[in-house]
Amino acid sequence: MKRNKHKIAIVGASGFTGSELTRLLASHPEVEIKHITSESHAGKAFSELHPQFLNIVDLTLEKADIIDTADLDIIFLALPHGVSMEFVGRWKDKNAKIIDLSGDFRLRSPAVYEAWYQKKHSFQEGFSNAVYGLPELTGEKVKSSQLIANPGCYPTASILSVAPLFANKLVENDTLIIDAKSGLTGAGIKASDTTHFSNVNENFKPYGIGSHRHTIEIEEQLSTLCEEGVTVQFTPHLLPVDRGILVTSYAKPKNEIDSEQLRKVYDDFYQEHPFIRIRDKAPSLKDVRGSHYCDIYPFWDSRTKRIISIAVIDNLLKGAASEAVHNMNLMLGIDQQTGLKQIPLKP
Amino acid sequence: MKRNKHKIAIVGASGFTGSELTRLLASHPEVEIKHITSESHAGKAFSELHPQFLNIVDLTLEKADIIDTADLDIIFLALPHGVSMEFVGRWKDKNAKIIDLSGDFRLRSPAVYEAWYQKKHSFQEGFSNAVYGLPELTGEKVKSSQLIANPGCYPTASILSVAPLFANKLVENDTLIIDAKSGLTGAGIKASDTTHFSNVNENFKPYGIGSHRHTIEIEEQLSTLCEEGVTVQFTPHLLPVDRGILVTSYAKPKNEIDSEQLRKVYDDFYQEHPFIRIRDKAPSLKDVRGSHYCDIYPFWDSRTKRIISIAVIDNLLKGAASEAVHNMNLMLGIDQQTGLKQIPLKP
Amino acid sequence: MKRNKHKIAIVGASGFTGSELTRLLASHPEVEIKHITSESHAGKAFSELHPQFLNIVDLTLEKADIIDTADLDIIFLALPHGVSMEFVGRWKDKNAKIIDLSGDFRLRSPAVYEAWYQKKHSFQEGFSNAVYGLPELTGEKVKSSQLIANPGCYPTASILSVAPLFANKLVENDTLIIDAKSGLTGAGIKASDTTHFSNVNENFKPYGIGSHRHTIEIEEQLSTLCEEGVTVQFTPHLLPVDRGILVTSYAKPKNEIDSEQLRKVYDDFYQEHPFIRIRDKAPSLKDVRGSHYCDIYPFWDSRTKRIISIAVIDNLLKGAASEAVHNMNLMLGIDQQTGLKQIPLKP
Amino acid sequence: MKRNKHKIAIVGASGFTGSELTRLLASHPEVEIKHITSESHAGKAFSELHPQFLNIVDLTLEKADIIDTADLDIIFLALPHGVSMEFVGRWKDKNAKIIDLSGDFRLRSPAVYEAWYQKKHSFQEGFSNAVYGLPELTGEKVKSSQLIANPGCYPTASILSVAPLFANKLVENDTLIIDAKSGLTGAGIKASDTTHFSNVNENFKPYGIGSHRHTIEIEEQLSTLCEEGVTVQFTPHLLPVDRGILVTSYAKPKNEIDSEQLRKVYDDFYQEHPFIRIRDKAPSLKDVRGSHYCDIYPFWDSRTKRIISIAVIDNLLKGAASEAVHNMNLMLGIDQQTGLKQIPLKP
């Protein structure tokens, strides 16, 4: 007998993350999309908004507050920061588990949130049961969670690039520098000077120097790993490409190490995690584009006594949509790789 | 009981087409890749050559002439023009059916081949049983064929853009102009001045004006459809993008038509063909990128009395690798959509 | 004794055209920029808006209606369609000559304007003395004009690509097809879905099929040349590059011609025009980027009996700002090449 | 009476640097190009090789060893590393001064050269009189030099980004990290896997981690400034753009500083240098593209107690060709800004 599929809803499908979630979930063998919502486009077909889905996903977009949540197993929130918290509060007593792709529940406390997001948090009790959903690090907790805070794109790549070092307490906790570079889709679908082609194309620049919100998210997770306070210098830059994040992380080891030992630390740490690939050479963005992989190249510079770790992900997938599906798989108790085996699209 | 999978080989896997074939076939539920060959990289792992496949396809590359063809069902030839014909000749008596992605058997006769490819053909008898494998037009013949000439990328988009017009004898046969634009991957993986980033990036130019080999391929197929000689003005241009072909076809109708009639001609013609999508607006390259779809927008210009038809495909997929898999599905008698349901990757 | 410099104003400097005008005029040895205006940024330094001008052009932006026009020789209007006409009307009795870069006075009559721009024209008397300022064709008239309608970017490339054919009445007047491709800056500086990086990058599409306003501008100018009505099929496409237009023009000769004759027609027609370069091979966008050149490659296809002419320009320069400076030079009676000798920037 | 122009030769004009030198020098009011050489293209017109120069620079390319050096004032060597040294040796007794754009004489000694370039040096005596030609730092020495070692592109941006800090001995000399990103033209004009469009476009990756030759060049120059040994962690990355380098430099101050003090350090240091612009916000590549400017944004992060300095240049100009012209101006005793006032080309 055929197993019933799990029922899911995607709330907020007009942006890139919502569109990518829909792409993955429409092909996922164990779930059925019951609702896709968009406040500004309700009534239109999803494929009218995103014509690449014509004849594939033609569901009608609904308004979020009228969907029937009664029989849903999972609700994905692909909403802006500050909007997600409203829906988490509203639906807190429903049966459906929530995977929130915004930054609203990623940090340790409302106070930290308000300091870095400069915004009052309207559903503070959510912090008590939210689980930070980075499967390679927190997968066990994810399995039994009701509310997942899906990690930010930069934090996913940044944390994974150095997690083995911090978990093994091998590096200093106040000299880490993460120089990060992201494709433009990280800036969202909304038209602005930032996203104007002529400002991005053939161009490159840093932004948010010393103040980007993802800094604290990275610091908190690395602190949890090494059980000490961690200070990170995090500098994001904008690449003239659609997809992909590459981070170049510079860490100072407490004691000297060698290349072979370093490699073993990474191999051991990620041994059970099929979506992490430890590489022999520096990876490039396209090695993982369109996939759930995170490729990592740890390098020991014996001249400067510094560890450099390069990590690449697809920011819309491992840094957002496929990470959410990975979390969903864990929450539903199905094989974690289900629906996530897309081979990178290169070139 | 589990059905046995069909056994296939991919001959020539160092290029883009071979790599894309491998990507599709590694995820295809009904086939098993037995051999992947590369003359220049034999002995290496496939994933060493194409690192995006690490931990996914790590098969060792072999030399083509030593693979055991005895138990193979299908052999894909992803080889340069002029090399394919050698292998077709060598393996003509094997059980395995051959799908040739080169241009060696696409034309009507050795004489036409030699005129347009300026090269002697070494296996002329192949022309007698080769079938031009454009499933939407020649699918029935493909099913029982032993040798498929997989269409060129430009001809796929070009022919599909106007096939309903020629099949219905609606347009003049000597005024068709096809202004075509292709992404750089059409030029292949080999480093050259043509593929140097600085010559392509932020640039655009036509090439092969009046003399491109795909001209005759288009003319022959359209002639077959309308049962008359057809002359085509075909002008290809090089776009600074990786993937995608867009053709702008200008046809002069024999009799006046209107928008609704025109749309109906296309809807009717492609009614049974799930990978052709007739659009209400002009499509863009990314609407089909990473997929097997061909999106077509037919437009009637009542001011100039001309039909303009826009078609887009992913040149490496519908224009090469996924077209080959589509042909394979037909030859193996399995559902034509198997392994080809990838949703376009956008953005 | 040092000659006094001519005094000019640039009205509307927040966009790409205004910025390019400023770049050219700031380096022009015979003029002095007295005013630069921007309604939305008045009070700021020009270099605050366009930081590439820091320490070079730090003039304060003014509101257009308060500048003193009394001692100005030339006023450039780099304003949107529909706004220019207001200023032309307001300043019609001033001494300053006006070069209008908008479409407001390019067409033959207010009626034609209103039909193609779907907008009421508020200064209809302007049409009586406006001169279409394409120096290679109308340079003599430009010299004595008070009001120049600076050509559109597409019309500049399109008209120049075939002007020798129409001026010599060599081609049919109702079968011309111009398939045009433009960089994104043609869409302007305003953020919109059209200009969002993710919609442009790695993408390509046609737009305005059968209805683009530049169609009538091209038709009118070619009609003037051949002294007959001309119908043009004009299809613009959007390229994922910043700058450049390439047009592929398809013309049917009345009588057969050969390659040598064709070349001579072009050489003769443009003999006195230093910014037109007749090429032996198809040019590419970067061959003229950052310069005032228009490179043209006329090709005779003896198989199809058709002439194909390829022309490339920098849309912001020869298609807008440098064209305006060229017109200015003619109006001021100085050497036409002054300030326009920039060598193309490639790569 | 008109002053005689200085006579120069460009040796090695087939690459990007040679082509850019020619572009600048052809427009330079005080010099005359007497010879342009290319071993592989001798006999062709320069504009046949670089068609953007058609009708502008049509000089015939010569072989280097046959040019008459007798009346030359300056010879530019735009040759590969290892080839330049041969010509410097051969022409050491000529009157002409030499500006060498290769890496052959940039380092302190033949021994250092051989360690980092893994190549025997064939003209070791050249080191004794070669001057490292970074005008803002070594301009006085340049004026009287016979042999200029023109800086590398990365070192130009890297050194300028932190020179005020090291010259004032404000920062630690063993914790500097320079995370650098360059456009593809830095890889040269030769076709290779590295320069293949499909490997660069939509991609990004680091290379030469821990071992790039420019590391030692940066270390030596900073050591000279602070009169102590300096160790630099230098990591270059390849951007999918034609032109531009952006460096993100992380320095640890010996004593705490504040934003205002930091800004003053930079303003004071570069006060006399018109091509350095200290910015209030992070610059982007296009702010300097096509120009000789280096824009720098120094930032004090009070949370991490670290100085971050962002610098951008056009790698082919300030990082190569215009730097060479700047050195030439100093050597010829003419105004240093002559021929270098191009305003950045943006967008």
SSE blueprint and pairings:
The structure is a homotetramer of 347-residue chains.
Chain A: E1 6-11, H1 16-26, E2 31-37, H2 46-49, E3 74-77, H3 84-90, E4 97-100, H4 110-117, H5 126-129, E5 130-132, H6 135-143, E6 147-149, H7 153-167, E7 176-182, H8 197-200, E8 205-206, H9 214-226, E9 232-238, E10 245-251, H10 259-269, E11 276-278, E12 294-301, E13 306-313, H11 321-332
Parallel strand pairs in A: 1-2, 1-3, 3-4, 4-6, 5-6, 7-9, 11-12
Antiparallel strand pairs in A: 7-10, 8-9, 10-13, 12-13
Helix pairs in contact in A: 1-11, 6-11, 7-9
Please describe what this structure looks like:
Chains A, B, C, D: Catalyzes the NADPH-dependent reduction of N-acetyl-5-glutamyl phosphate to yield N-acetyl-L-glutamate 5-semialdehyde. The structure is a homotetramer of 347-residue chains. With 347 residues, chain A is of the alpha/beta class. The first copy, chain A, has two domains: 6-151 and 320-332, NAD(P)-binding Rossmann-like Domain (Rossmann fold, 3-Layer(aba) Sandwich), CATH 3.40.50; 154-313, Dihydrodipicolinate Reductase, domain 2, CATH 3.30.360. Chain A contains eleven helices and 13 strands. A seven-stranded mixed β-sheet of chain A has the order 8-9-7-10-13-12-11. A six-stranded parallel β-sheet of chain A has the order 2-1-3-4-6-5, sandwiched between helices. Chains in contact: A-B, A-C, A-D, B-C, B-D, C-D. At the A-D interface, strand 7, strand 8, strand 9, strand 10 and strand 13 of A face strand 7, strand 8, strand 9, strand 10 and strand 13 of D.
